[in-house]
Amino acid sequence: MPRRPLPFLAWAATLAPLLLTATLSGGARPALAQNAAAPLGIVVPYPAGGPVDKTAHILAKAVAPQLGPVAVQNKPGAGGNLGAEMVARAPADGNLLVMGAVATHAVNPWLAKPFPYDPIADFTPIVLVARTPNVLVMEAGLAQRLQIKTTSDLVKYLKAHPDTLKYGSGGSGSIGHIAGEMFKSLTNTRMAHTPFQGAGPALKALQEGGVALAFDNLASSLPLIRSGKLVALGVTSLGSDDELPHVPSINSEVPGFNVSTWFGLFAPASLPSAAAQKYAAAFSAAMQTPAVREQFKAMGLEPESLTLGAFGSFVRSEHSKYGFLIKAAKIKTD
Q1: Is the Cβ–Cβ distance between 111 and 333 less than 8 Å?
Q2: Range of the domain at 142
Q3: Which of 22, 163, 266, 325 pairs with 291 at a CA distance of 20 to 30 A?
Q4: Mapping DSSP to helix (H, G, I), strand (E, B) and coil, where does residue 41 land?
């Protein structure tokens, strides 16, 4: 998957007061010791079986030779907030990481006040694992009946038939929800949002006709697109994707549209710097092994390379970006 620069839009400079200034790199944190007897654990704040969960299991196995056995546990709920909060509040010797994502660290904090954790100050960023565009998909039979082949076709249909189509997402405040509301705002169209308890149920409802559309992440939709069960109308990043080279970006037909999913590993803020560096090195090395790269590729993912402070800067940028977008589009949880 080619590297596409994530634009830090011109408006970002005006958002400086919104940025949380606590450091992500961990330099000023107390050197609290970990419990060497406790195995490392990765909390996945989403249901089992999804791309984030599968990726966590791949990495847990890959780093075992360097870090020992790594247990993966699922703690879904509240759009990922429950699992992220669990790690934010974990004791210093708990040896817990969370596979946080754009929702838990950049989107959700803008949608609920008070929020249960600080996405910046309460965590030590370890490594950005992967970035993947979302893809606007329809069930193939419905797309054929409505003669919708492109994003422009969809916009024309929605303008002629407002409120007749529903889009599904993995829950209120999920990245699929954000993408749908941004799409409506930029195209001046109307369609209802149906939230589900996770992206898996939303994708199932799409296939069964419960909803007409979804802005799903490419990793989970790709097998269904390849099998012909879903039609991809556009990808949500600024350019096309290697896995779908003939599917244009939504931005090419709806200027200003740009939403991508990302996820990475975070530790509690109390993690000592030496441990953070050890984890970052181990996971980064594992992600570049042929075995892991092959498994990632099968899911439509490409391993990333940002760690520690660089990953922290990326998170701050994403947090700022989505704060602006959510306010500008007046997006609220249902």
Answers
A1: yes
A2: 133-252
A3: 266
A4: strand
Written as six digits, the tokens of 144 are: 């054929």
Q: Is the pLDDT of residue 16 over 80?
A: no
Per-residue burial over 75-114, b = 16 or more CB atoms within 10 Å of its CB, e = otherwise: bbbbbbbebbbbbbebebebbbbbbbbbbbbbbbbbbeee
* Separation between Cα atoms, residue 177 and residue 216, nearest integer Å: 10
The 10s digit of each residue's pLDDT in 109-138 is 998 888 999 999 999 999 999 988 889 999
The structure's pTM equals 0.77
Q: Which of 125, 143, 137 is nearest to 29 (CA)?
A: 125
Q: Is residue 5 part of a domain?
A: no
CATH number of the domain encompassing residue 95: 3.40.190.150
Per the structure block, which two tokens stand in for 2?
């080619």
Q: What is the largest CA-CA distance in the chain?
A: 63
Same domain, residue pair 141 and 128: no
- What is the tally of structural domains in the chain? 2
Kindly compute the dihedral angle of the four CA atoms of residues 250, 255, 261, 262, in this order, to the nearest 10 degrees: 130
The answer to whether residues 116 and 158 belong to one domain is no
3-state secondary structure of 196: coil
